[in-house]
Design a protein that fits this description.
BirA Bifunctional Protein, domain 2, binds adenosine-5'-[phenylalaninyl-phosphate], two-stranded antiparallel sheet
């Protein structure tokens, strides 16, 4: 009687497992037959009630059936897994005859090239690099540079304000203040970085880069400034390039100068070969690239230095302007348009 029900159970299981077409269904069958409330488990429980003489034979039959069920479940699961693997492999077949994708090689942006070159020249002259925040406060960008509120020189630099007191720095000169607040002379520093002004035409960009430089010690003179800048310009531009120091005004330097470079595009002539005014130098033959001067005693007072004991020079140059001169670029906006035809020309 029990034997028969074992045979029926086995047949039923065999047909069920043949139908089980997914891993979930096989798992369900496992529970249905071998689980705590499973059909086989149930038979095992009833086993105890059998007369002792029947137990060995039936026990063996039951164990065999359980082993059989376990083996078949595992085998079926293996089959289904293999089938799934084949399905995926077929669906994702790689066509090795397709052409490969090319790795595009990037290039360094021309402004980064020029910036690195500028920095290298100053590092060889013994300058250190310092950096300051792009978002500045009014005090560091203006006031400590001797431009109190309502000072007319503030209009020279059309400012983007972030709040009443915070602004996008209009020049790298606030780094002078930040360094001098923290350190004592001797100092020989450059501060490269982005600056921002409400300005936009072929030679003015709303975001551009400057490299600030300054040197402070006990006996720094204007001739030191001239020597450092002349050496720098000869290294970065052609050695025979014309350089012009022009008297100028900055509230934070006295005396002050602006430094112009002979336009390399029109060779200083001011006009193109078609007789049009040169767009880079606007027909003047010169391009202003630098502001400079001897640090004003008032600035030293703001940072707690004694102006009777220290002196120094400072300068700030426009990196885009130098790059324009070096590569003969007529419009500053080309640097920021990310046109690959333009960018691919530099390496
Ligand atoms: C200044 O920004 C001063 N902080 C420089 C300075 C530093 C003077 C230390 C004295 C001592 P200026 O506004 O002239 O000065 O700008 C310096 C250079 O930045 C200019 O010579 C020019 O090359 C460049 N420049 C100015 N405005 C722009 C602009 N909108 N786009 C690109 N370059 C610019």
């Amino acid at each position: 009687m029990v034997r028969e029900s074992l045979e029926t159970l086995k047949d039923e299981f065999l047909s069920r497992i043949a139908e089980g077409a997914s891993e979930e269904e096989v798992e369900r069958l496992r529970i249905e037959y071998l689980g705590r409330k499973g059909k086989l488990t149930f038979l095992f429980r009833g086993f105890k009630e059998l007369p002792p003489e029947e137990r060995p034979e039936l026990g063996e039959a039951l164990n065999r059936l359980r082993q059989f069920v376990e083996d078949r479940l595992e085998f079926r699961l293996g089959e289904l897994k293999q089938r799934e693997k084949e399905r995926i492999l077929k669906a994702e077949r790689v066509d090795i005859t397709l052409p490969g994708s090319r790795w595009e090689r990037g290039r360094i942006h021309p402004l980064t090239l020029v910036m690195d070159e500028i920095i290298d020249v100053f590092l060889t002259m013994g300058f250190e690099i310092a950096r300051g925040p792009d978002i500045e406060d009014d005090y560091h960008n203006f006031e400590a540079l001797n431009m109190p509120p309502d000072h007319p020189a503030r209009d020279m630099q059309d400012t983007f304000f972030v709040s009443q007191d915070r602004l996008l720095r209009t020049h790298t000169s606030p780094v002078q203040i930040r360094v001098m607040e923290q350190r004592r002379p001797p100092l020989q520093i450059i501060a490269p970085g982005a600056v921002f002004r409400h300005d936009d035409d072929a030679t003015h960009s709303p975001m551009f880069h400057q490299v600030e430089g300054f040197m402070v010690d006990s006996h720094i003179a204007f001739s030191d400034l001239k020597g450092v800048l002349t050496h720098f310009l000869r290294q970065v531009l052609r050695p025979e390039t014309g350089v012009r120091f022009r008297p100028s005004f900055f509230p934070f330097t006295e005396p002050s100068a602006e430094i112009d470079i002979q336009c390399l595009l029109c060779e200083g002539g001011g006009s193109t070969s078609e007789g049009q005014p040169c767009r880079v130098c606007k027909g003047t033959g010169w391009l202003e690239i630098l502001g400079a001067g001897m640090i004003d005693p008032e600035v030293f007072r703001f940072v707690g230095y004694n102006p009777d004991q220290v002196s120094g020079f400072a300068f700030g140059m426009g990196v885009e302007r130098i790059a324009m001169l070096k590569y003969g670029i007529e419009d500053i906006r080309l640097f920021f348009q990310n046109d690959l035809r333009f960018l691919r020309q530099f390496s």
